[in-house]
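Entry for the shared binder. Reason: the reviewer on the internal report wants the predicted structure included alongside the sequence.
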Amino acid sequence: MKRLLTAVCFSLMCLTPVLAQDSETDQIEYLQSEETEEPVFEKRNFFKTKAGDQIIRISLDGTIPLNFPSITTLFTEDKKLAGGGSGYIGYHYFITDQLAVGGNLGFGFNATIGEHMFHYAPLIATVTYQPSYKRFEFPLSMGIGLAWEAYNGYTYFPGLIIKPSAGVHFRALESWSFGVDLSYMLMPQFAKLYGTGSSNFAGQWLEFDITARYYF
């Protein structure tokens, strides 16, 4: 019996270092796993745009005509087109963390002499480069597309539209950013090509946008 107790005690003494080593190994692995995960979590920026992100863009805009018939007439009684407004909804997809492609569909108007209205409905394909700093985003876009134009019973389609823009946005939430954009809009009319007049004309506008963007 004494021999049996002695053997058991001796076996337990031999197993103690092994158990202690296994316990120590488990603790080290646990600490290592914590050290690996915690910095990753801390460095993760929920407000940083990533490749594969998508955006629904909504904007309300004020428009200022620049050459109807000239820029100087903006400040005189000789202007033929007054200020107006427009609105857009768009979809954009980030192919990298800073480069997105997409499109905007909109509708706009300007008052003209004789209490008439000039209406237009553009469909614009865009490429956007968007650098960022912390929660601030700086989208720079180039858009080109087609526009339906109407004035006093006369319609013009398809009309070309070119629209570069720059903006400043604040990422208020992970899924929402809000900001302002400034755009230059060019809509030429090729009257000679379409046989509707003797000369071509290129309408120019400035647009000031208040924009909300939903990320998903």
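Summary line for the report: The two ends are 74 Å apart (CA to CA).
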